[in-house]
């Protein structure tokens, strides 16, 4: 690991390897700025550290369902401890966008909820916790994705105007001294006809009206839907920096080994292309040297404040991860919500009763989603207490006991999902059917299931909480934090 020239070939496949890579990089950065590496570790749906051994937070909508600022601050601190332990000191979180019913594909459980005031309180608490742990936070996606109807990872969203209160969560994060703000690719026609990340008007709104003085980072320019409206990656980078963005973001999956070698090589080439284009733009006067000087000063300050110097203290990974698991369990216990049929819980399971499980496969193609690769923990969790029979979706159920229909991302339209269709098919002749949504709560829409449960996350802590509600004490403490929901 310490041999010069070989570290660049390391494939990062575990927290231990990541810790070794970042320690090597920090120790070999003598005379340079302290090491500062960014990562997406939001909790819930999007986590770069998504290896099976990593304790995952239930995510923002779960925090909204719990409705507790202390838990949000604990979540930020726990994630911060995990990241700092492996040498990551800049987190591209929290999401400050509001969600709606039905949920925008790019937001959903990544949001704290639909009430801007509640989102503001929880976002600020998360920022405080994360930065207290020594990790820079990033409020995103300014000026807000609330109200969009297309996924900006697949198409460029256009809004007539910002929704009521859209800026409140960003103002709250700024008041909490958030280190960074990410500007999105959405067009808000009331502000400008250009994507936000390339709009001087949007950047002026952030700087002058909201009073943000930290680092502004762009949405991922590698995404075609982000760069194509601006003429390609290089031109998008130039437009963003000229408008007031300090750091442009590009794909960073080059060291994880999940992409083909040719794709990783293309990513490196794209970075070099952007550097050349920005350099040429400064030399031609397209981007003023003062603009570059401002960006450099802010980025240097971020490195000095949060970066890792050689020998800097880091939490021990096992302790940080164990602490995160405890926090995840507390959040899950307070967040899982029963939205129908709570009087039927816990389930009546006389000795010998067989519990049938029907897992409905995912149908979505969301780019910003690592949780879809999470193992299916529910059968193992429930089988620890009762006899369990797993039946494929669409197949007959040969037993008379309760049926659990569940899925993660099965919505096909705004008011229907395959999981809801499956639950409705089985909810006949007085059978007890429970539908559990482990992703967006929209999966419950239109269901005829006797009991509806919103878990907000497929990770182990939330699954354990569902198990307790179904077969333990039957008590759920969460409330769906999305207005306009219909079941």
TrEMBL record:
<keyword id="KW-0378">Hydrolase</keyword>
<keyword id="KW-0326">Glycosidase</keyword>
<dbReference type="GO" id="GO:0005975">
    <property type="term" value="P:carbohydrate metabolic process"/>
</dbReference>
<feature type="domain" description="Glycoside hydrolase family 3 N-terminal">
    <location>
        <begin position="23"/>
        <end position="300"/>
    </location>
</feature>
<protein>
    <submittedName>
        <fullName>Beta-N-acetylhexosaminidase</fullName>
    </submittedName>
</protein>
<dbReference type="GO" id="GO:0004553">
    <property type="term" value="F:hydrolase activity, hydrolyzing O-glycosyl compounds"/>
</dbReference>
<dbReference type="InterPro" id="IPR050226">
    <property type="entry name" value="NagZ_Beta-hexosaminidase"/>
</dbReference>
<dbReference type="Pfam" id="PF00933">
    <property type="entry name" value="Glyco_hydro_3"/>
</dbReference>
<dbReference type="InterPro" id="IPR001764">
    <property type="entry name" value="Glyco_hydro_3_N"/>
</dbReference>
<dbReference type="GO" id="GO:0009254">
    <property type="term" value="P:peptidoglycan turnover"/>
</dbReference>
<dbReference type="InterPro" id="IPR036962">
    <property type="entry name" value="Glyco_hydro_3_N_sf"/>
</dbReference>
<comment type="similarity">
    <text>Belongs to the glycosyl hydrolase 3 family.</text>
</comment>
<dbReference type="InterPro" id="IPR017853">
    <property type="entry name" value="GH"/>
</dbReference>
């Amino acid at each position: 690991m310490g041999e010069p020239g070989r570290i660049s070939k390391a494939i990062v496949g575990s927290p231990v390897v990541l810790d070794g890579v970042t320690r090597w990089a920090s120790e070999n950065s003598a005379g340079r700025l302290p090491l500062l590496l960014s990562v997406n570790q939001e909790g819930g749906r999007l986590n770069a550290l998504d290896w099976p051994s990593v304790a995952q937070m239930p995510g923002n909508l779960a925090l909204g369902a719990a409705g507790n600022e202390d838990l949000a601050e604990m979540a930020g601190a726990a994630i911060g401890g995990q990241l700092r332990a492996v040498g990551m000191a800049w987190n591209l979180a929290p999401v400050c966008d509001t969600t709606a019913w039905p949920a925008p594909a790019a937001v959903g459980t990544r949001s704290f909820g639909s009430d801007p005031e509640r989102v503001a309180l929880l976002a600020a608490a998360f920022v405080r916790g994360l930065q207290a742990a020594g990790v820079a936070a990033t409020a995103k996606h300014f000026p807000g994705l609330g109200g969009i109807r297309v996924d900006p990872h697949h198409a460029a969203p256009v809004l007539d105007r910002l929704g009521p209160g859209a800026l409140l969560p960003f103002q709250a994060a700024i008041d909490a001294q958030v280190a960074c703000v990410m500007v999105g690719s959405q067009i808000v026609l009331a502000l400008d006809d250009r994507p936000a990340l390339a709009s001087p008007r949007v950047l002026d709104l952030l700087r002058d009206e909201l009073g943000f003085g930290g680092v502004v980072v762009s949405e991922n320019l590698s995404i075609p839907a982000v760069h194509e409206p601006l003429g390609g990656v290089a031109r998008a980078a130039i437009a963003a920096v000229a408008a007031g963005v300090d750091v442009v973001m590009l794909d960073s999956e080059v060291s994880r080994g999940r992409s083909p070698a040719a794709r990783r090589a293309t990513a490196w080439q794209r970075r070099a292309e952007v550097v050349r284009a920005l350099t040429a733009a400064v030399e031609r006067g397209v981007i003023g040297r003062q603009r570059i000087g401002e960006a450099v000063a802010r980025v240097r300050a971020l490195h000095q404040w949060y970066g890792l110097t050689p020998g800097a203290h880091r939490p021990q990974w096992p302790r940080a991860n164990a602490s995160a698991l405890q926090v995840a369990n507390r959040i899950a216990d307070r967040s899982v919500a029963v939205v129908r049929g709570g009087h039927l819980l816990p389930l009546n399971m006389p000795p010998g009763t067989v519990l049938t499980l029907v897992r409905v496969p995912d149908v979505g193609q969301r780019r910003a989603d690592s949780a879809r690769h999470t193992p299916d923990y529910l059968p193992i969790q429930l089988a620890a207490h009762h006899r369990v029979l797993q039946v494929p979706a669409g197949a007959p159920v040969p037993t008379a006991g309760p049926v659990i229909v569940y899925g993660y991302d099965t919505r096909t339209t705004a008011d229907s999902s395959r999981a809801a269709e499956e639950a409705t098919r089985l909810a006949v002749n007085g059978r007890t059917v429970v539908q559990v949504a482990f992703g967006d709560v929209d999966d419950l829409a239109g269901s005829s299931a006797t009991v509806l449960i919103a878990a907000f996350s497929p990770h182990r802590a939330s699954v354990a909480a569902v198990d307790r509600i179904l077969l333990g004490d039957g008590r759920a403490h969460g409330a769906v934090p999305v207005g306009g929901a219909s079941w």
